[in-house]
């Protein structure tokens, strides 16, 4: 048994989807309670089912004491499922150092997100953006340097057969009978300022293990019965100038499978396949504009591009491009996104980096309106 499998954390019950700062109710000097309600309109060129519907209700609790203790939790109710987003407790040692234990964001790549849109980038759908797992996370941040070190014992539920979840994790299926069983993360980022320019330059490393699950109903008899090692690395750069922001990232990941070039992930109730090994490129640009249009005080418009480059039998590249604007109006925060996807999950494709026959471009319009309190 490797050292990655020795620790086991319970799935304990940070960030909202947007960078908009919510105004929680201050219960005491140390405790805040907040939440959000969102509705969503979606039109797709690949089906005839456009509709406006309830999307989410969420509850947030945040605690911070004068002696350095803190905690945060968020639970979400969607139309078809209810899930943990994050839940952790921690201690602030000093101005530079803190530690968290629980379900916390995996420190990898551009943070807090590798996108500006409601739709995120392709990295979200392959488990490398806004991912939350159960573990322990140490952070050092002083002057221009930030360092994150973390160990995650398992996904947020510790159960690969549970497909109802917010963040994308390895799924246990008959064709892909594996589950997450230990993961190490290290991330370093340096903040450099030059006149009106601000740069964040960093790198991330991830090493993990997947356990083979023998008791899966209908398991493929040719599936590899060995545990699997996983690796991912990324380099990122974010540049800010006045109201403009540029994000660039290169990522490589590899699930070391011997007899398959696909691995199953799941979130939002369904499992699907991605390429077991790929390179991922992200290039995003945005501009924030303060306006005085009645209740509307800010527009942030963006174009977020990401592509998953995969090669091999039954594989094909996936591309996602999101053009849109985020609108701030008091406690309301809304997104208007046009999503164009080529062979892309949640945009007409059956997975990410796989070829199941239809690898054409598809589009969808998504409008999300949220009240954050």
UniProtKB/TrEMBL annotation:
UniProt keyword list: Signal
Signal peptide bounds: 1-24
Name this protein carries in UniProt: Phosphate-selective porin O and P
Species assigned in the record: Shewanella subflava
